[in-house]
Amino acid sequence: MKAPMTVILALFILCNSTSQCYGNTDQIFVDKCIISVYAAIDAVEADEVADDWNDMYLDPIYTSSEFQYLGEVYYDGWRWTWYSENVLPGGGLDIPGRYVDENLFVCDGDGYICLASSTLPYGTVLETPFGKYGKVYDSGCDEGTVDVYVSF
Fold this sequence. Notes:
The protein is an alpha/beta fold.
């Protein structure tokens, strides 16, 4: 959403320069322009909030195969480990729309990677280092650790 903010800044500069060039003779144009700028800012902020929740994909730092090989990684102040549904099926977990994605992460129907944390409350959504957001559905791991539910 950086490009629209650049456009809004350019519009704001145009409004200010028009105001300085024309003084009060063209004040109606300037007022309409400034109102448009504020409306555009509100629209961009609304889009950014929507993008934060609707765009599930981030730039991955680790692939699932790298994560599987490493066993644990550290990201954003958390220790990330994995646990496999092949060992612990997790049938008792209430994960609506549960499926396994193309990277072998167990996800909910909204596309969140299913996580466990004894530090974070159930339902907490957080950025993962794997290219998608995750949501806490379970607990039982060490303090400061986020377990990622996988299918490998």
